[in-house]
Specification:
With about 425 residues, this protein is α/β, with parallel strands linked by helices. The protein has helices spanning about 1-10, 35-50, 85-90, 95-100, 125-130, 140-155, 195-205, 225, 235, 285-290, 295-300, 335, 345-360, 370-400, 405-415; strands at about 30-35, 50-55, 80, 105, 110-115, 120-125, 135-140, 160, 165-170, 175, 180-185, 185-190, 210-220, 240-245, 250-255, 260-270, 280, 310-315, 330. The strands form four sheets. An eight-stranded mixed beta sheet has the order 6-5-14-15-16-13-18-17. The protein has a five-stranded parallel beta sheet with strand order 8-2-1-12-19, with helices on both faces. The protein has a three-stranded antiparallel beta sheet with strand order 3-7-4. The radius of gyration is 21 Å and the shape is globular. Residues about 10-20 and about 65-75 have low confidence and may be disordered. The chain binds flavin-adenine dinucleotide.
Length: about 425
């Protein structure tokens, strides 16, 4: 069933957590490479498990940047969805209230055809909360990142900035840092995103990300400006996640609390030059791509003054995320980057961190570290592979061209029947 497939992947749960005594267990010094959402989540999980954590981050200041961001000063496309599998973990860590205070709780999840026809409406409040016991949220990335940084620091995590990791000596283990002495720890966790130096060190060869064939325009407009336009008032007024499915493209929109902003992502075929992963977009070109779409969406895009386009990339599934020496492992986009079409990339990274923390909480003897890293991979890999494949499969469903399959998809969504075409 398409709706079930979609909602289960987006909403399903994982990542257990229980408290056990930390007395008499070995304490490790864990180096985490990368202070993205994944690295921070891992640092919280592992510090709460009683270990010492240092994050090595290449940026000179802490803040949310993006995968593959070639312009480090760019203000990154604003919104991120926090599905219940993440909010459950945030609740366990005692930070859900803080997150919720700066988030929006969507009441409905709406799917439309690119012409504007309503295909499906799924209730989020109370549905998602009754089913999963925790909310579905949207938040500004900077707010999410800042709360995780604050929480990591409260848990005793040290942040070493200006530390671009160039390689790992897996035996020591030690982390090589550009223009700085090596950093020694007991365990090294590579959470350095899509273009991961840690992944390349583990593979022992360059492993640049792959083009997926799609790019995203990442846009925010002001909610107040939308309120001035009668056709946009409903979108601006009601916290709803709206998707439009169209030929080779789709659009996702939702409100953000910060700055009264409305977040828009336009996903469409990649036309960036091969050497560039992000670029300032031509607004006329953007209008041209969506010229036959829902008049409401076109009105919305009429408010866009400037935007940029981002190549969507991922990487080949790895045979293993762990170094055989048992002292290093990868997490997040570094080992399972995905198309963002199920809104699960960061959620998977947060789950990775929670699982690592929960397992490291159970280490009773020094010899168990290697087993724990292997177990972490065993628990996580199948699930993250399913999400990566599911996101690619979602692309095919979202982007169907007009024709029999698209009509069948729309009919089944309208009638809430199983989607046989998938
Ligand atoms: P990153 O966020 O890439 O962080 C890596 C960190 O490592 C950065 O701080 C970087 O500076 C640092 N670093 C990199 N190299 C080095 C080095 N050599 N040395 C030291 N530090 C280094 N996910 C969701 O869950 N929900 C959504 O709604 C969602 N929407 C998305 C929309 C779009 C358009 C895109 C592109 C992605 C979306 N995602 C979403 C996915 C999500 O953004 C990523 O999966 C997530 O940010 C990955 O986190 P990470 O910590 O693994 O990597």
């Amino acid at each position: 069933n398409f709706l079930k497939f979609f909602s289960d992947l987006r909403l399903s749960t994982s990542a257990s957590g229980r408290s056990v005594s930390v007395m008499s267990r070995p304490q490790y010094h864990v180096a985490i490479v990368g202070a993205g959402l994944g690295g921070l989540a891992a640092s919280i999980g592992i510090a709460k498990a009683g270990h010492k954590v240092t994050i090595l981050e290449q940026a000179p200041v802490l803040g949310e940047r993006d995968q593959g961001d070639i312009n480090q000063d760019a203000q990154v496309g604003a919104g991120i969805q926090i599905p219940p599998n993440s909010s459950r973990i945030l609740k366990r860590w005692g930070i859900l209230d803080k997150i919720e205070a700066v988030s929006i709780r969507p009441v409905d999840f709406v799917l439309r055809s690119y012409k504007g026809t309503l295909l499906s409406k799924q209730n989020m409040v109370p549905y998602a909360e009754e089913r999963y016991g925790v909310p579905y949220l949207h938040i500004h990335r900077a707010d999410y990142h800042a709360i995780l940084v604050e929480e990591a620091q409260k848990a005793g995590v040290t942040m070493q900035l200006n530390s671009a990791v160039t390689g790992i000596d897996f035996d020591a283990p030690a982390v090589h840092i550009k223009d700085k002495p090596d950093f020694h720890a007991d365990v090294v966790i590579g959470a350095d995103g899509l273009k991961s130096a840690c992944r390349e060190a583990l593979l022992g060869k360059p492993d640049p990300p792959h083009f997926t064939g799609d790019l995203a325009y990442r846009i925010t407009v002001r909610r107040d400006d939308m309120m001035q336009i009668p056709e946009l008032r409903e979108l601006a007024d009601k916290p709803v996640i709206t998707y439009w499915f169209g030929p080779d493209s789709h659009v996702v929109c939702y409100l953000l609390q910060r700055g009264g902003l409305y977040n828009i992502v336009l996903a469409c075929p990649d036309d960036l030059p091969e050497t560039v992963n992000t670029a300032k977009a031509d607004i006329d070109e953007m209008h041209d791509i969506f010229k036959d779409w829902d008049p409401v969406l076109r009105k919305l895009l009429g408010l866009v003054k400037e935007t940029s386009k981002w190549r969507l990339q991922n990487s080949e599934e790895m045979k293993t995320w762990a170094h055989p020496g048992g002292k290093s492992v990868l997490l997040g986009d570094a080992c399972h980057s995905t198309l963002p079409y199920l809104a699960q990339g960061a959620a998977m990274a947060v789950e990775d961190g929670a699982v690592l923390g929960a397992l490291m909480e159970r280490i009773e003897t020094k010899e168990q570290l290697r087993d724990v890293l292997i177990m972490y991979e065993k628990i996580r890999k199948e699930r993250t592979t399913r999400v990566v494949k599911g996101s690619t499969a979602a692309r095919e469903i979202f982007h169907l061209n007009d024709g029999d399959r698209q009509q069948e998809r729309d009919r089944q969504l309208l009638e809430e029947e199983p989607f046989e075409g998938y």
